[in-house]
């Protein structure tokens, strides 16, 4: 099956720029984790990850392609809090300007606010909402849906139901987040691993992304918080984040002693 993000990846690398961690504007070349997601994606995906690997930047860029070219499309991104929603929309606006410069053209905006853009040429819309509105999207017809930092939503299930129900049958739906302990998102992740939700779970570790020297320095800097920020596997991501009743070190030790049952 062809990846639902293959054409988006080509568009991003051909047309867009990004601001790197030093504050410089550079061409948007996909990193190894972003390329792996393009290969892995099914169109209904959950990304559980370590910190700062660029998945939000990629997803925002992929949806920007539809905003520019796909008539009457509606791309929706839900942020966990309002401050983050402003940052996400600022990145979308940067992508549009980068596209305009690269092609010596202008994307005409009929509507340009803090939360919504509308393309005057093709009537496409790009909306950034927040998880505070649990009924968000219920009356809309959504082409692309991104739930950003979804493990931190107070009402993950309600938002998943309201916004997800508005998605078109062929629409792309990606849930992307770092872990936040045990709760609604953890339950949904487990159900997805068991094949009960229709979503494909993907775990991407910082250890497969950053060089060893950086990870060694992060281990020294973070101490006991290292596994929370850079977990090696999905289970470790959940048990080292959020608020747990059990001691994390004791739980980690007991998990290390468990073995798969012997089948006769």
The average pLDDT score comes to 90
As a whole number of angstroms, the C-alpha radius of gyration is 19 Å
Q: What's the N-to-C terminus distance?
A: 37 Å
Strand order of the largest sheet: 5-6-7-4-8-9-3-10
Q: Structural class of the helices, strands and pairings?
A: alpha/beta
**Largest pleated sheet:** 8 strands, mixed
Series of H and E elements: HEEHEHEHEEEEHEHEHHHH
Task: Name the beta content range.
Answer: 15-25%
Shape: globular
Count the strands? 10
Give unreliable regions as ranges.
Answer: none
How many helical elements?
Answer: 10
As a percent range, the share of helical residues equals 40-55%
What's the structural blueprint in terms of helices and strands?
Layout lengths: L5 H10 L1 E3 L5 E3 L4 H9 L3 E6 L5 H15 L4 E6 L2 H22 L5 E4 L3 E4 L5 E6 L11 E7 L7 H10 L1 E11 L6 H10 L6 E5 L7 H11 L3 H4 L4 H6 L8 H10 L7
Parallel strand pairs: 3-9, 3-10, 4-7, 4-8, 8-9
Antiparallel strand pairs: 1-2, 5-6, 6-7
Describe the structure.
With 264 residues, this protein is an alpha/beta fold. It is built from ten helices and ten strands. The protein has helices spanning 6-15, 32-40, 55-69, 82-103, 156-165, 184-193, 212-222, 226-229, 234-239, 248-257; strands at residues 17-19, 25-27, 44-49, 74-79, 109-112, 116-119, 125-130, 142-148, 167-177, 200-204. The strands form two sheets. The chain has an eight-stranded mixed beta sheet, sandwiched between helices. A two-stranded antiparallel sheet has the order 1-2. β5 (109-112) and β6 (116-119) form a beta hairpin. α1 (6-15) crosses α3 and α3 (55-69) packs across α4 (82-103). The radius of gyration is 19 Å and the shape is globular. The mean pLDDT is 90.
